[in-house]
Design goal:
single chain; alpha+beta; Dihydrodipicolinate Reductase, domain 2; four-stranded antiparallel sheet; globular
Length: 244
């Protein structure tokens, strides 16, 4: 059977390339979003013992806020994931308005070794810390190094990499660009939203049904003092600073 050469115009070639690229985006993004759903489905439903709700002082004086409002402006959570990999590892999340610093950080505290290297046990375990934009991104590795001298005494040190240059695009500009390229990776999928709501539905309904007032906290603080007990057994909350 004779063969025939097909010559494509530049526009046709570009169109085919976009179709292929969109397919690759779709396959990769769906795999990632499937894993997000699987993780959310493994999170135990939250109960009131793992939640502290707060409201900053003066919130009820804000415009269009009811004087007896029980809406929270702060939440601290303790979550557990039912999977072999994360069994026994608590996850603590806190977020709020009018706190001491506006920052997004993830701190991973590592378990201490069974046989410490140094003579004196350090107060804090080794850690990995991630700082997430929008104006800076950082990665820090917290370790214990030997103090100068003959003894085997350790001290806490942190190796920090910080990119504090403003990005070329804002978060919304990136999302718009992803939408134009057909990349849905950063967009929420319905089953992921439903799985996330499953985690908090019980405590949301409980708070709405009883009308319990959230715990007060001062503006410029790190939230209500009741939240300190939530993370005390795991070493307490990490309070980020204004920089990296």
């Amino acid at each position: 059977m004779p063969t025939r050469n097909v010559n494509l115009t530049a526009e046709q070639d570009a169109f085919i390339e976009e179709v292929v690229r969109a397919g690759r985006y779709q396959n990769a993004s769906e795999a990632m979003r499937d894993e997000k759903v699987a993780l959310l489905q493994s999170v135990r439903p939250l109960d009131t013992s793992g939640l502290v709700r707060g409201q900053y002082a003066g919130y009820r004086s804000e415009p269009e806020v009811a004087p007896d409002s029980t809406a929270e402006t702060y939440a601290a959570l303790r979550l557990e994931i039912d999977s072999p990999r994360w069994a026994g590892v608590p996850f603590f999340i806190r977020t709020g308005k009018r706190l001491a610093v506006t920052a997004t950080q993830v701190l991973v505290r590592l378990r201490a070794p069974a046989h410490p290297l140094f003579d004196a046990a350090a107060e804090a375990p080794n850690h990995v810390r991630f700082g997430l934009g929008p104006d800076r991104v950082s990665i820090a590795l917290g370790v214990h190094t030997k103090e100068p001298g003959a003894g085997m005494r350790g001290r806490a040190s942190e190796l920090l990499m910080c990119d504090d240059e403003a990005g070329e695009m804002s978060a919304y500009e990136r999302l718009i660009g992803d939408a134009l390229r057909g990349d849905p990776t950063l967009f929420a999928r319905q089953d992921a939203i439903e799985a996330a709501w499953r985690v908090v539905d019980g405590v949301v309904a409980d708070a709405a049904g009883h009308g319990a007032a959230p715990k007060p906290y001062a503006q410029g603080s790190w939230g209500p003092v009741e939240a300190d007990a939530l993370a005390a057994a795991a070493g307490g909350w990490h309070d980020p600073g204004p920089g990296c």
